[in-house]
Amino acid sequence: MTSEKIPYKIYLSEDEMPMAWYNLRADMTTKPAPLLNPATGKPMEFEDLRPVFCDELIRQELDNDTREIPIPQEIRDFYKMYRPSPLVRAYCLEEKLQTPAKIYYKFEGNNTSGSHKLNSAIAQAYYAKAQGLKGVTTETGAGQWGTALAMACGYLGLDCLVYMVKCSYEQKPFRREVMRTYGARVTPSPSMETEVGRRILAEHPGTTGSLGCAISEAVEAAASREGYRYVLGSVLNQVLLHQSIIGLEAKAALDKYGVVPDMIIGCAGGGSNLGGLISPFMGEMLRGERKYDFLAVEPASCPSLTRGVFAYDFCDTGKVCPLAKMYTLGCNFIPSANHAGGLRYHGMSPVLSQLYHDGYLRATSYVQTQVFEAAEIFARCEGILPAPESSHAIRAAMDEAIKCRETGEEKTILFGLTGTGYFDMVAYEKFHNGEMSDYIPTDDELQAGFEKLPQV
Amino acid sequence: MTSEKIPYKIYLSEDEMPMAWYNLRADMTTKPAPLLNPATGKPMEFEDLRPVFCDELIRQELDNDTREIPIPQEIRDFYKMYRPSPLVRAYCLEEKLQTPAKIYYKFEGNNTSGSHKLNSAIAQAYYAKAQGLKGVTTETGAGQWGTALAMACGYLGLDCLVYMVKCSYEQKPFRREVMRTYGARVTPSPSMETEVGRRILAEHPGTTGSLGCAISEAVEAAASREGYRYVLGSVLNQVLLHQSIIGLEAKAALDKYGVVPDMIIGCAGGGSNLGGLISPFMGEMLRGERKYDFLAVEPASCPSLTRGVFAYDFCDTGKVCPLAKMYTLGCNFIPSANHAGGLRYHGMSPVLSQLYHDGYLRATSYVQTQVFEAAEIFARCEGILPAPESSHAIRAAMDEAIKCRETGEEKTILFGLTGTGYFDMVAYEKFHNGEMSDYIPTDDELQAGFEKLPQV
Q: Chain B: residue nearest A150 by CA?
């Protein structure tokens, strides 16, 4: 293996694309804890979840055993429109950092939704359509998930109702138009359209919203409409399953050149990207075949892994969803409005939470100006203007590569570049103008959230 | 050759990327007419152009003979960051249109500038840097060229001054921030910064600007600064040369599968994309090796080929540039402010103008609501949200495919998808809200422009 032979971008052929998703849970000794019914405190069964989720997705959600789940042909055809995504060797960034490290990134932003979210959106919309449903409801934070779902629904002819976190709705008006182009209806959350929205607005007038609150509204909207179900872009086991395509493709591309990463880095909000990227590698580690250093990177303003607690909590602010055992800041936690969109969720995927708890995964956090500094350096040398979310991983990868410069280590670093920042220019503008501040929640603020956690 | 074997996306490997640009002029029997010095009426020579352009670019501009011009290694390395671009088989669009036609598009939008403009930007910035210059100046209309140049200059460490057509500057504030991210300085045009800008503002207070006017400002800015030169994103022979990479890659990709297009369609503003896309195919036709049906698609609001005259005219509104023989609406022509950005140039590449004049190329035009209708259909089935510019080609390709449905012809259609519309959501919003109108200039308005053409 010589680095001279490795192209800037490694593309798999369509024949080499994965035929099945990989279910990481099958290889976990300690499985993620089950969702609990908040009324009874008992695990949610198939029938309990049917009013909210599509049948096939519930099966995937509850399946801790099947290692490989075939990707239906229709989904694979859709994937072919924008996948396989490139695995990029960051030659220019390496040169800029003067590092002996070898940096690779799996770039998921080359599609109109601008992120990896489309991987799960098309799967969830497909199963909804297959079940004969009329439409789906969802929430969106930075707008990437909503756009992805709108694209999938537009393609399949499903109705799509999106509750968009109000601060993103206002910061990113163009996102709304992209979703409308694909035929979706977009409502800023909290809204007066749902009972839970009205309640939250009464309690917190002037709130800029949160993902947890938008989830509550979308769940209520699905439950109160005939032929609708709720779909979610992160956190859930099924989403990590669909996102395993990121890691499977990345691993296949690296395998072609005999490259084995030492370190795998991803940004972490609800965990969809990180969980998908690491899954096949983590599987090897769980099966004792190989060791990797996995690093989750989160914003210091919403630090669920690094400063949260591992406990059962509601998935949503309105407390209409089941309880999940996860690293959480408390379901009422709302990050500072100053925080530039994305990675705003109070909790973390139960799968990743369990792995973190069991010591398979490290986590770190950065304040947002550190993240935008890295984003700008990356944009200038690698050409891609990254999403603020993805830039958390960029920052961590750069810091690791700089450490290698100092130690002389030739580490191979793989990180997930989840998306592009084309709809984040308000945040970039704030950064350019020096108007971006780095608010970090105090211990007392976090403690107040922990005290309200449900007793299970 | 069976269509089953053709993947959704054909990627060349890095080894298969072109090593040289193709200079279409070498195969033209009637060469494009030379640029003229407006003061003397004589052809511009190397020395005449040196105050404005870089030396190597002047050589390329004046070279009507060398068929292949090698691409320097540094440029090829930069190309590898975002090229080869995919050649996409539009299976979903074919299905949607129920057409027997086979539709392919060469997608140039998968880079942060969002368009093909980066292909020439890096070349021009590279030669400026190689000549030891400090920086470059330019104009930008829809903002794609300015972004591309900012990216190229950011990468090479060159200073970059961009004069942005005022209506685009106002409609696309985020474009400015992307350019700033790459370190460029952006000024709305006409501005008070230049003599020509002040003059145009005095004559037309409240003008929303035009490409021709922004060009004048950028040329003046370059000429009045030590160590600066002017660069242009379209129209010029050198730009078509650099953009030949689009057609070369497209042809190589089609050749791999033995596919020969019957028809090649591109949107046409100044001609950079169309000229690049068609060049190797047009070369075959000029050499008598094969026949193709070439179609230029322009906006009905700025119809230089379909309603302009073939004459010597200034390249810019301020009349500081040389005269070029081209199809033109007159250098004072400014399209309606209602027109949604892009393809706003009053003239057309002299190379394409000559070919059109000689009957090698057809042209047609569409009003903008026709274009946005096509854009929305395309976005929903092919997943990519297209730029309004590119959507002109989409519309024409769709109409051709629909004709095939009616006649049963199995035509193979190739079109250029030059870019994405992520920064055009204001225009999409107008379209969604039914606020987009279809202004077409009257014959009298056009006649007024023709009467002011310079006498040569």
A: B380
